[in-house]
């Protein structure tokens, strides 16, 4: 093997480091996705043990399986590219570097072709998007109790973009799975309602509705018990600039009885329960009788997505350009090193 020049050695190590990161990330994604596909019960157990409400929506075997297959494909591609680039550069292998460069060229050409087609046939692409949205809604959208990956994606889009259905709420009349599993009087999914956050129900009749900001209701300072105030200033059982500790105050009669100290906490819990009940009543009113004030039932997600893509077209374009430049740089480095090395590593 011929010795490499200083520039070629620099190119070699840049390719090694750059692709090793992709190799490691792809391997991690691939391992996790295979684990999810083969043994999703373990992940289901972890989500049940978690107290994070956002994880509960993924607590469904079908959702995990569908997501795992997508992750397997993405992880395998990233792993393969990272392996070819890293090993090809480390071993100075012309065959591996050539394969690596050709694969990136294929990806680059596909991206360019997709971008050109999307720009030239923009109207047709938007029409195809509308048909795709209708197809996914009609064939795969269901209730949170029987959620799949498509259902979660639709709920996320409707909550984020504040929309309902493809064009409006009437699209759900043709959603076969949703019509089968919903309650009799329900006209729209919960995701179409304003200022609500969907948590995974534990039963068909148990829907937990919380406001967007699911923080405990604040206690007024004068309503807080003395131990709580002292705890907030630095901890229990300490002196605070001349103030006695909690134990000392209680011994002197300033702590009050246990019932008096617990009263603000009970009041707070009652306030939270009343707030939750009001949210549940508003949610039931929304899904059964949607209006412009409690939902987005007349606003379609297709129009919102189209407006979003046009509004962020420059960001999408610059991101695609940056990705294309990175790919061109990888191609250039790979074939530069390939032309420098004398042959495959023995």
From TrEMBL:
Pfam families, sorted: Tetraspanin
Transmembrane segments: 12-38, 68-91, 97-121, 315-337
Signal peptide (UniProt feature, chain positions): none
Source organism superkingdom: Eukaryota
Bilayer topology term: Multi-pass membrane protein
Alphabetized UniProt keyword annotations: Membrane, Transmembrane, Transmembrane helix
Gene3D superfamilies: Tetraspanin
Subcellular localization: Membrane
Gene Ontology CC entries for this record: plasma membrane
Protein name, entry field: Tetraspanin-1 isoform X1
């Amino acid at each position: 093997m011929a010795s490499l020049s200083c520039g070629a050695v620099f190119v070699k190590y840049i390719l090694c480091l750059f692709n090793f990161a992709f190799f490691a990330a792809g391997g991690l994604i691939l391992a996790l996705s295979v684990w999810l596909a083969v043994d999703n019960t373990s992940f289901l157990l972890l989500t049940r043990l978690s107290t994070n409400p956002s994880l509960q929506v993924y607590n469904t075997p079908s959702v995990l399986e569908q997501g795992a297959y997508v992750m397997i494909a993405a992880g395998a591609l990233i792993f393969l590219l990272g392996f070819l680039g890293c090993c090809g550069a480390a071993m100075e292998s012309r065959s591996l570097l050539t394969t690596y460069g050709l694969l990136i060229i294929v990806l680059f050409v596909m991206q360019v072709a997709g971008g050109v087609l999307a720009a030239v046939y923009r109207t047709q692409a938007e029409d195809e998007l509308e048909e795709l949205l209708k197809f996914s809604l009609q064939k795969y959208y269901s209730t949170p109790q029987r959620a799949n990956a498509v259902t979660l994606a639709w709920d996320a889009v409707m909550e984020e973009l504040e929309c309902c259905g493809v064009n409006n709420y009437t699209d759900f009349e043709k959603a076969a799975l949703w019509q089968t599993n919903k309650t009799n009087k329900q006209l729209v999914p919960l995701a179409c309602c304003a200022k609500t956050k969907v948590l995974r129900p534990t039963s068909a009749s148990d829907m937990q509705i919380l406001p967007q900001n699911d923080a405990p209701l604040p206690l007024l300072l004068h309503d807080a018990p003395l131990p709580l105030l002292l705890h907030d200033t630095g901890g229990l059982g300490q002196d605070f600039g001349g103030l006695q500790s909690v134990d000392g105050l209680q011994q002197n009669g300033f702590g009050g009885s246990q019932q008096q100290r617990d009263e603000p906490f009970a009041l707070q819990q009652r306030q939270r329960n009343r707030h939750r009940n009001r949210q549940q009543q508003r949610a039931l009113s929304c899904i059964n009788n949607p209006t412009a004030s409690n939902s987005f039932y007349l606003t379609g997600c297709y129009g919102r997505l189209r407006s979003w893509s046009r509004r962020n077209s420059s960001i999408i374009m610059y991101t695609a350009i940056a990705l294309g430049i990175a790919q061109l740089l990888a191609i250039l480095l790979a074939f530069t090193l390939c032309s420098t090395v004398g042959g495959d590593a023995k």
